[in-house]
Design a protein that fits this description.
By secondary structure, this protein is an alpha/beta fold. Helices cover about 25% and strands about 30% of the residues. The strands form three sheets. It has a six-stranded mixed sheet with strand order 4-3-7-8-9-10, with helices on both faces. It is globular, with a radius of gyration of 17 Å. The chain starts with a helix and ends in a 6-residue tail after the last strand. The structure holds guanosine-5'-monophosphate.
């Protein structure tokens, strides 16, 4: 069992509806020493990839991405979920269905922060159905950049996101993969992880689309 799996067993709370609460150390209160270990582990797992920039999504991915970025020595860009007067210029947008909030969000990245030819590592806290990731992947593709890695803290392996993303051929690394969890018994079982996992096959729709938009769309 690795350091993150141990922490999940110690402090994670399984809720009804396939939700794991990790707000005491990951996505509300944040344990920075843990994030440092995660950053180091992401660097180890992606050491053979050339990474120019990390892309994440607000809010919970930001802290993890920022600490990881210190190890990769690259900037972090986070996709915003709401239109803002501070978002000026042209943007990429994708529509993403939220697993936890059961609603659709537009996620937005300013075109000036993603460039053609850049090698991108996507980082996020959770992978469930993969909708957030597919939205971010669409934005990277629309920018003409490449997704050279995807690093996830906690993958819920009993939901389809992980297999969809791996089947698309991406280099996806999840530090902890939950095979099953039971709210009534408070039990969590982790998947034994192979060193690396790639494959290629079909593309699955995930309720998002990507579009380029100009300044007028946002104000
Ligand atoms: P997906 O798009 O893969 O279905 O869901 C990923 C997003 O939903 C993550 O960015 C995360 O914020 C949220 N999420 C999904 N499952 C869980 C969960 O079990 N617990 C928490 N805290 N967040 C989750």
């Amino acid at each position: 069992m690795n350091f993150l799996e141990e922490r999940i067993l110690r402090d994670g709370v399984v809720k009804e509806g396939n939700v794991l609460k990790v707000d005491s150390f990951l996505n509300h209160q944040m344990d920075i020493a843990l994030f440092e270990r995660m950053g180091m582990e992401f660097l180890r797992r992606f050491q053979n990839e050339k990474i120019d920039k990390i892309l994440t999504i607000e809010a919970s991915g930001i802290g993890i991405a920022c600490i990881a970025a210190r190890y990769f020595n690259v900037p972090v860009v986070f996709a915003k979920k709401a239109k803002s007067v501070n978002l000026d210029g042209e943007t990429y947008t994708a529509e993403v269905e939220s697993f936890t909030h059961k609603c659709k969000n537009q996620v937005i990245v300013s075109k000036k922060f993603l460039s053609a030819g850049e090698h991108i590592l996507i980082i996020d806290d959770f992978l469930a159905n993969g909708c957030a990731l597919q939205g971010l992947i669409s934005i990277v593709k629309a920018a003409g950049a490449s997704v050279d890695g995807i690093g996830i803290a906690i993958e819920k392996g009993f939901q389809m996101g992980g297999s969809v993303i791996r089947n698309l051929g991406y280099h996806l690394e999840s530090l902890a993969i939950i095979e099953s969890m039971d709210a009534a018994a408070g039990k969590i079982v982790f998947r034994e992880q192979p060193a690396r996992s790639y494959s290629s096959s079909v593309e699955v729709q995930c309720g998002h689309r990507v579009a380029s938009s100009g300044i007028s769309d946002l104000q």
